[in-house]
Amino acid sequence: MSKSIPNVDWTNQLESVIRQFVKEKLELIMREEIKNFLEIEQAGTSNMRNGYYQRNLDTQYGRIEGLLVPRDRNGEFQTQLFAPYQRVNYHFISAQKRLFFAHSFGISLSPFPKECAKFFVNYFGMGHG
């Protein structure tokens, strides 16, 4: 008799694998960002890598915990993936979850349709009319 994995367990495992994949790719991108930052923007200076700091980031795939963000000795590097102190990456959050976050933090939902329109124009190249 074969045992099947219950749907809930399977879904949780899949979500966990996806979060780990997203975390690895974000960290890879940031390692490349700091490498380029130091080689190009900081060329000729004594600035160099200075390890990592950890942070959490909420995405449409769930909370990514312990994301390793590289830093430089002078404290000048800033990833382009998210703003400093930003804990929710709205580019990775579905519209439904955006509504929930906005409501949770007491943010008015009236500008939300305008924000959605800007998102679709910027990220999917969808023009007006």
How would you portray this structure in words?
A hairpin with a 2-residue loop joins β1 (49-59) and β2. This protein starts with 6 loop residues before the first helix and ends in a 5-residue tail after the last helix. A two-stranded antiparallel sheet has the order 1-2. The radius of gyration is 19 Å and the shape is elongated. The longest helix has 35 residues, at 7-41. The protein has helices at residues 7-41, 95-104, 112-124, and strands spanning 49-59, 62-72. The protein is built from three helices and two strands. Helices cover 45% and strands 17% of the residues. It folds into two domains: 7-93, no CATH class; 94-129, no CATH class. The model is unreliable at 124-129 (pLDDT under 50). With 129 residues, the chain is an alpha+beta fold.
